[in-house]
Amino acid sequence: MTEEQQIQKDEFLTSKEAEEYLKVSSVTLWRLVKEGLIPIYKIHNRNRYRRSDLENFMESHKVSSANTTPVSSN
């Protein structure tokens, strides 16, 4: 991993940026934080999310294609 990639991976995001990154609502993001699934950082009384933590969360919730159920299109 290059130094630039490491810096980007450790970048801190605002709540809005984290919501956009995960493609979730603010309610869902806060629920994930309250459940301890995503760590939050308080910086000057503002919530921040580390990009690498969001990536780790997404990776840990990856489902292999063998475990997925087809969605009915009735």
Brief sketch in words of this structure:
The chain is α+β, with helices and mostly antiparallel strands and 74 residues long.
Architecture overview:
The protein is α+β, with helices and mostly antiparallel strands and 74 residues long. The chain has one domain. Helix content is 46%, strand content 14%. Strands 1-3-2 form a three-stranded antiparallel β-sheet. It is globular and about 45 Å long. It starts with a helix and ends in a 14-residue tail after the last helix. The mean pLDDT is 86.
Secondary-structure map with pairings?
Elements: H1 3-9, E1 12-13, H2 15-22, H3 26-34, E2 41-43, E3 46-50, H4 51-60
Antiparallel strand pairs: 1-3, 2-3
Low-pLDDT segments, ≥5 res: none
- What's the number of helices? 4
What's the helix-strand series? Answer: HEHHEEH
DSSP, total strands: 3
Coarse shape = globular
Output the structural class: alpha+beta
Return Rg in Å. 15 Å
Major beta sheet, strand line-up: 1-3-2
Helix content: 40-55%
Strand content: 5-15%
Termini separation (Å)?
A: 46 Å
On the 0 to 100 scale, the average pLDDT is 86
Major β-sheet annotation: 3 strands, antiparallel
> What is the domain total for the residues?
1
